Amino acid sequence: MWRRVTSLSPFISSSKPSIRNQASYGGKIWELFTTEILTPAKAGISSDEKTPFITFVVGGPGSGKGTQCAKIVETFGFTHISAGELLRREISCNSEHGSMILDSIREGKIVPSEVTVKLIEKEMESSKNNKFLIDGFPRTEENRIAFERVIGAEPNFVLFFHCPEEEMVKRLLSRNEGRVDDNIDTIKKRLEVFTALHLPVIKYYSEKGKLYKINAVGTVDEIFEQVRPVFAVCEATK
Ligand code: ADP
Ligand code: C5P
Ligand code: MG
C-alpha cells in the first residue's frame, strides 16, 4: 500500500527550451524537449516502501504506450494503470458515467478529470504494489492539476513517446481491437485534441526536469532498449 506525499525527487533532467513562439516551430515543437539520464547518486530516489513511485506514460494515440508498459511491467514489476482502459471498463459495466464516457471516447474528447482521477485513485488504493505506471495520463493541464490535488503526489518522472502522426495513424488503423475510436474520423479528432492540449503538459514536465523523451519509431524491442535504462537507474538505487 502507499501513502500520500507532497513531492518526490526526479532522477532525470531535461533541457529547458524556450517556447516563446510555438507557432513558428509548427510540427517540430516536440523536438524541443530533450532529456538526459542522471546518475543514481544525483537522483536521490527514496527507497521507502510506502512511498509510491509514480511514472506517467504519455504520447499520442498509437505511439505505443500500452505496448511498452507491458514490457516495463514484465521487466520491472510496476503496476500498469491505463486511464483509457479504466474509462472503457466504466462503459462496459454501465456505471453512472458510462454513457458520458462513451460519448467522449467516440468524439475523441477528454473525460472530465474528476471522473478519471477518481478511477485512478481507486486502482492505486486497491493495489499492494507501490510502483505505478499511469498510462495515457495526464492528457491535459486539467488532468495534471486534478491528480496533484486528489492524490497529493507528483510523478517521479514522465515517459513521453514521440511518434510521427502518419505512423500513429497507420498503427491505429491496424490495431484491430474493435475500439469505437480506432476509425479515421475519430483518429483525426484525437490527434487534434492531442496537439492542442498535450503540449502544455509536456512543457511543464520538461521544465521541471521530469520528462524523458523516447523516440517511438522502430521495433518494439528497439524502443524498449531506450526505455530500459530509465528504469534500470531506479532499480539500481534500491
Ligand atoms: P497506445 O497505447 O499509445 O495507443 P498501443 O501500444 O496500443 O498504443 O499500440 C498501437 C498499435 O501499434 C498496436 O496495435 C500495437 O501492437 C502496435 N505497435 C506498438 N508498438 C509498435 C511498434 N514499435 N511498431 C509497430 N507497431 C507497434
Ligand atoms: O489512452 P487511450 O487511447 O486508451 O484513450 C482512449 C480515450 O479515452 C481518449 O481518446 C479519451 O477520449 C479518453 N481518455 C480521457 N482522459 C484520459 C485518457 C483517456 O478522456 N486521461
Ligand atoms: Mg493505450
Write a concise keyword list for the protein shown above.
238 residues; 10 helices; 7 strands; binds adenosine-5'-diphosphate; two-stranded antiparallel ribbon; Rossmann fold; binds cytidine-5'-monophosphate; binds magnesium ion
Describe this entry's structure for a reader.
The protein is an alpha/beta fold and 238 residues long. The protein has one domain (9-13, 27-38, 50-236): Rossmann fold (3-Layer(aba) Sandwich), CATH 3.40.50.300. The protein has helices spanning 22-25, 40-43, 65-76, 83-92, 98-106, 113-125, 141-151, 165-173, 184-207, 220-236, and strands at 12-14, 35-37, 53-59, 79-82, 131-135, 157-162, 211-215. Helix 3 packs across helix 10. The chain starts with 11 loop residues before the first strand and ends with a helix. Residues 3-29 and 34-47 have low confidence and may be disordered. The site of magnesium ion has 5 residues, from helix 3.
Structure in a nutshell:
This protein is an alpha/beta fold and 238 residues long.
| Main sheet makeup | 5 strands, parallel
In CATH terms, what is the fold-level topology?
A: Rossmann fold
Report the total helices: 10
Query: Which term fits the overall shape?
Result: globular
SSE topology sketch:
Blueprint: E1 12-14, H1 22-25, E2 35-37, H2 40-43, E3 53-59, H3 65-76, E4 79-82, H4 83-92, H5 98-106, H6 113-125, E5 131-135, H7 141-151, E6 157-162, H8 165-173, H9 184-207, E7 211-215, H10 220-236
Parallel strand pairs: 3-5, 3-6, 4-5, 6-7
Antiparallel strand pairs: 1-2
Helix pairs in contact: 3-10, 4-5, 6-7
The structure holds adenosine-5'-diphosphate, cytidine-5'-monophosphate and magnesium ion.
